[in-house]
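Following up on my earlier thread - several people asked me to post the actual chain instead of describing it. Fair enough. Here it is, all 127 residues.
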Amino acid sequence: MTENEISKRIIGLAISVHSSLGPGLLESAYKECLFYKIKKEGLIVEKEVAMPLVYREVKLECGYRIDLLVENKVVIELKSVEALNDVHFAQTLTYMKLGDFKLGLLINFNVSLLKNGIRRIINGDLQ
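Reply from S.P.:
Thanks for posting it. Predicted structure:
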């Protein structure tokens, strides 16, 4: 399954979670619900995946954690904020670069219509 196919499924599941819960909850609530939905869908999903920083051949545990990683291909960074900003985008891109992942989804659940809170982030060549 390609990154694009995975992301389409994830977006559909995220919309389902948002339709059930609506905006205004904590990020952790959306994370647990989306994790459950993705797992139930039969996709391989991990949460709070540690991403070490490699500096001069030394792995440094700096506290970087991917919210959700699906099929070891797609990074999902979840937010429940007033508005997404450049720091959120940079955080997602950093996780993608550290893990050499090509596609990330930055999803803000604190919006009235979820499609307005989703940003696809591409790192490198994506087929």
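Helices lie at 3-21, 27-40, 86-99. That should answer part of your original question.
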